[in-house]
Amino acid sequence: MVDREGSRFFNTHKVIYMKLFKTSLIVIMIPTGLFILGDLIFGFQQQQRDNIWLRLPSPLFWLSTLIYVVLKEVQADKK
User: Fold this and answer.
1) Domains in the chain: how many in total?
2) Which of 66, 63, 79, 68 lies closest to 19, judged by CA?
3) Residue 79 — very low, low, confident or very high, per pLDDT cuts 50/70/90?
4) Does the keyword Transmembrane helix apply (predicted)?
5) Who's near 68: CB < 8 A, 6+ residues apart?
């Protein structure tokens, strides 16, 4: 026997968590994208090549963008 109330509860929370996850990806993409733009204009990485904190935003931006686009495509296929 299937518990319809439980599955509705799970689906509602699944949607909420997915929206929260996508929003957090956008929150990551905006500052890292601005940093990449500033790096292109001002050359932050050229001044301090060994600093890991200056190299971290670039892959983080591209990874979060890739995950966001894949999630959008998966949700578009479900509809």
Assistant:
1) 1
2) 68
3) low
4) yes
5) 22, 25, 26, 29
Per-residue CA distances from 75 to 23, 30, 51, 57, 64 (Å): 15, 22, 38, 27, 16
pTM score, whole prediction:
0.70
| Alpha-carbon gap, residue 46 to 39, rounded angstroms | 9
| Domain coverage including residue 28 | 4-78
> DSSP characters for 13-55?
HHHHHHHHHHHHHHHHHHHHHHHHHHHHHH-HHHH-TT-HHHH
Confidence bin at 5 (pLDDT 50/70/90): low
The terminus-to-terminus CA distance of the chain in angstroms comes to: 27
Distance CA 7, CA 18 (A): 16
Q: What whole-number distance in Å separates Cα of residue 20 and Cα of residue 26? A: 10
